[in-house]
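F.,

This is the one I mentioned.
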């Protein structure tokens, strides 16, 4: 009865418009004062122990900060250009590209609202201009933006891992296949609708444009490698990965993309020399990046630094010869043939050798697939991007009427100038108003989220003190509840709760309640976590407190209820996806179990 009163107070306070965090904390405190034998001192002790014992929560402010820099620094625009170049030529391609852009940005931000703001502010206007209805555009982005908490890294996954003491690394791996599947299902749905309604399609812009946009977006996309590669390579913990990601995002936004800060508007190449110096800049720039990457690798593995200089020198020699050949071939109309031959030699042949080595080895089929994908991304993609970026540079050089040697001089000169500017403005960039504004916005979001979590922890303390999880477990097991029925109940609770509460606060409350029952019924804790995250996705696009609905309404300048109606057709897809994730456990457990082993629960 007392617990019913507690939850009744929470619901009543939410119904009259009290903020979620205050409703949780106030209800729990009143319950402790009036209906419980526990003292308020126990709340302080519980909060201190909860925060001190869950260092993974430190990852949240850093992931929020990295997302803020990436959202402000123009990364989303470059990712959208890349997505359009890949798939914008099919029927409904701009909408499908919007979903792909949301998936890629989700792998950088870990936040659904940030994904909707960053991608939606550009794609929705572009779709309307291209002939799509605003309702369709808003519905697509509102639903695709939910992938921000499913595709790793994810702030909600960090909260679940902290609340249940499971591995953040396993949670991140578990979100890969469901995240890709959800995005694919949305894309297929859009394509079918586009074929039926004869929605517009763009024109194929060629492989040169594809690789050029990959190059533009690569600095932002490399953040995925920094985060996930660092975690699963054993270089740093998830919390350390989040901190490094925020620093990397700051550097990319301020000093490389220069979309904010004191260098905003200062291009790496002056407008008057943009065509002439692009080819040379790419030769020298790729060489510098090669040296930096090898230097980092030598430092981490304890290899002599001369190896990095030797690798960069070899790369520079090949780059100079290849750029010269392409610069001569482009005016003669043979640029693509030379580029294709170079990709064949430096990309395709090494990739085929690696694939052959993998196929003839005695490893599990999943490792074979992962290694083949890795061979494509590591051995084929970088040479292709470099070679076709040289083709684009040679084409711009032909337009300028300059020569190859002159392009090298102009490109090298501007690379030195730009890096000198980076050094000079390094300190002012930290104190620039754009940096302060980004830090302030990230701080506000962090405080809001942590305040909700802190108050949810008070409620968790009350529930634990009253032994509610144990009582619920006993009742459900005594009633003969099986895994299937239990998961149905969990989904119903989360779907209803997700309509009224912020995802992180709801997970902190519900996870400790359902977690012991799931363990007793033999449900994998990682599988349970992904189910909860998917339910939170749906909660973010269902009224009255669906956060993505409010964000989309503001971005698209549409009434709230109009956004709700626009999102409904795609919401049905997410419900089908929820059923699949709930009752096909290997979608969530295959990758973490294969690479890290099963989650072991010790208490």
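My design for it:
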């Amino acid at each position: 009865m007392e617990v019913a009163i507690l939850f009744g107070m929470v619901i009543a306070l939410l119904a009259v418009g009290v903020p979620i965090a205050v409703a949780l904390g106030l209800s729990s405190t009143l319950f402790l004062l009036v209906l419980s034998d526990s003292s308020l001192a126990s709340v302080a002790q519980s909060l201190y122990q909860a925060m001190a014992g869950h260092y993974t929560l430190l990852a949240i402010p850093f992931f929020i900060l990295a997302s803020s820099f990436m959202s402000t620094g123009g990364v989303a625009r470059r990712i959208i250009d890349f997505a359009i170049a890949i798939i914008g030529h099919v029927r409904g391609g701009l909408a499908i590209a919007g979903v792909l852009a949301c998936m890629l940005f989700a792998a950088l931000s870990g936040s659904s609202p940030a994904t909707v703001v960053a991608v939606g502010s550009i794609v929705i206007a572009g779709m309307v201009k291209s002939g799509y209805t605003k309702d369709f555009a808003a519905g697509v982005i509102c639903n695709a933006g939910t992938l921000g908490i499913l595709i790793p890294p994810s702030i909600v996954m960090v909260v679940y891992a902290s609340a249940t003491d499971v591995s953040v690394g396993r949670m991140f791996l578990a979100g890969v296949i469901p995240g890709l599947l959800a995005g694919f299902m949305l894309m297929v749905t859009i394509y079918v609708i586009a074929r039926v309604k004869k929605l517009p399609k763009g024109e194929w812009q060629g492989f040169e444009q594809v690789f050029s946009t990959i190059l533009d977006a690569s600095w932002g996309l490399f953040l995925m490698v920094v985060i996930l590669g660092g975690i699963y390579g054993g270089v740093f913990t998830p919390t350390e990965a989040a901190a490094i990601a925020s620093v990397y995002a700051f550097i990319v936004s301020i000093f490389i993309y220069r979309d904010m800060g004191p260098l905003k508007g200062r291009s790496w190449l002056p407008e008057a020399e943009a065509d002439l110096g692009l080819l040379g800049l790419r030769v020298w720039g790729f060489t510098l990046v090669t040296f930096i990457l090898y230097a980092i690798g030598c430092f981490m593995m304890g290899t002599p630094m001369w190896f990095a200089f030797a690798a960069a020198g070899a790369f520079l020699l090949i780059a100079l010869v290849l750029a010269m050949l392409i610069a001569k071939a482009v005016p003669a109309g043979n640029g693509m043939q030379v580029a294709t031959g170079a990709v064949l030699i430096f990309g395709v042949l090494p990739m085929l050798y690696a694939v052959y080595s993998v196929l003839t080895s005695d490893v599990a089929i999943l490792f074979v697939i992962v290694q083949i994908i890795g061979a494509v991304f590591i051995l084929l993609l970088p040479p292709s991007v470099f070679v076709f970026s040289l083709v684009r540079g040679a084409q711009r050089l032909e337009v300028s009427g300059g020569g190859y040697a002159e392009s090298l001089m102009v490109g090298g000169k501007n690379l030195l100038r730009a890096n000198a500017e980076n050094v000079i403005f390094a300190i002012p960039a930290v104190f620039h108003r754009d940096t302060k504004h980004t830090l302030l916005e990230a701080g506000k979001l962090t405080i809001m989220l942590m305040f909700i979590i802190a108050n949810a922890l008070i409620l968790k303390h009350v529930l634990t003190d009253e032994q509610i999880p144990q009582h619920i477990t006993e009742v459900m097991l005594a009633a003969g509840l099986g895994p299937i029925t239990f998961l149905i109940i969990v989904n119903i609770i989360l779907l209803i709760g997700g309509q009224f509460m912020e995802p992180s606060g709801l997970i902190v409350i519900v996870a400790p309640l359902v977690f012991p029952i799931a363990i007793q019924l033999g449900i994998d804790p990682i599988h349970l976590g992904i189910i909860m995250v998917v339910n939170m996705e749906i909660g973010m696009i269902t009224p009255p407190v669906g956060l993505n609905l409010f964000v989309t309404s503001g971005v698209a300048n549409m009434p709230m209820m109009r956004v709700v109606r626009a999102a409904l057709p795609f919401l049905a897809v997410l419900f089908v996806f929820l059923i699949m994730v709930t009752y096909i456990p290997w979608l969530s457990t295959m990758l973490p179990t294969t690479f890290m082993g099963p989650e072991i629960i010790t208490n």
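The longest helix spans residues 365-400.

Talk soon.
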